[in-house]
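Fold these two proteins, one after the other.
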Amino acid sequence: MKQRDYNLDLVKTLAIIATVGIHLNACGSICQIYSKTWNFFVLFGSLLRFCVPVFCMATGYLLYTKDSIDINKILKKVLKFAIIFVLAEIVYRISYCPYMKYLYGEKIVLHNIIEDILQGNIKPHLYFLQIISLVYLFAPLGILIVKNENKELSYLLKLWIILSMCTLFLADTFNIRIFKIFNIYILNGAYNFIIYAMLGAYIRKYKKIHVNFNTVLCILGFFIGYLGIVFLMWKLSKTSGQSDYSIWDSVNIFTFLMSYSLFVLALKVKINSNKIKKILTLVSKNTLGIYLVHVLFTDFIHNMDLDYINFFGIEKILILFIDLFIVLFLSLGISILAKKIFQRN
């Protein structure tokens, strides 16, 4: 029996906390640019940008380092994600109907809802299921590469960092014309999440090297990435005269620095407490459930105008963190309950 990797549970726990935090903090986007509330929105939101890359790294860490894999199991897993995708969208639509009818006074027309879904207007949060499905579909090839590579993976990752993380990022952010030539390769696509998964596998394969990496440099790398995102968020918003979130949505060297540094730091942590191990295991096993359920609570908070977008006082900021804890706790509870119900059936 394999020993559970509690450090990876810690990684996934931090990632799901960051995900929920981002969605609760989203209300700050409607605030006046450079107001105290907007500044907190930028500072807090930028701190959490590692969530999706780290999830992909955690998936690759486990999946791409297997000795072999059953393609049928992969296809079943992807089919499961597809079914969850459809069911989640239906649940989100149904949950939104009371807001439409009683809060906004809009008519609920089933035909329009179906047509809207068929047009591809799905809940933005569900893109994560598409990303993970892509990571799983690449698994047979990913395992083959990781298993048989001899420094080729290191070369691939370095090339990716130079071309996609740096060159294309600079070209898109600062409109440097000479770098635009690289856009013909369409390097900034969803493939980046597969490479993040490959990075996770690379870290596990050469775990000793990464875990022994200087802790101070890892912390420094995280904060350099964080400050880089904050600085560019402010600079780009000032240039455009309105909130510019392109740095948050793009694949860039600063997000990479945060994600890699956090991942390595989490692997370094010594977890001795059995209580903490149980909590981390519980959250880690329910990350997908928490991800799907928390949207219902964040939608309720946003639609009922319960967002606390006035961060002029410390007490207002504390309310955000209280909301974060409550949403995480309720989402975890519902996820555990749903699992038990489905297992019985």
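Now the second one:
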Amino acid sequence: MQLNIYIISHPIIKILSNTIISSALNTYNKFSSQTHKYIGLLLVYEVLRKWMQIKNLYIKKINYIKEVHIIDSQESYLIITNLLHTYNIITEIKILLPDTELQHIDLNNNKSFTDDYNNIKLINIESTKKIMIIEKFLDNYKIIDLIKYLQVEKNVKIHQIKIISVTCNTKILEKIGQMYPNLNIYTTKLINN
């Protein structure tokens, strides 16, 4: 397995992810919504830190030059996620990335893959679009089918895709690593099951 796995180990991220993991075991946590929002922002920040292209714009004023940083206009994002499970994680992302499309897909259901992927057929994925697949817990082999679908049906290159998850199952990562060794995955914790 030569998969590019980035385990985010910042102390704040560790504390927040631990809260999310333990809240999955408990039925109620009053800070859960805020915790999800913050961990989502921090994980997306880590992904975008090296991935996002910023253009410098210089505006000549009478007495000085003003420098403005803007997102490259050619850059757009698609977030594929189960909105029912990750809505608190992605709430602020749309504000940070205005040219972002959201696509709901449920990787944990028992329906056939074509039922879920029919919605993705409606989206035009250009070669410049950057795709983030966000899962709270990466514990399902259907993620592999989704990546295969994006590559075969939508002609998406593997460098256009990043996976973001609070926790990742090592068996699933091994399988992904065999099929997609150049894929980048960002997580806070690896879980052996």
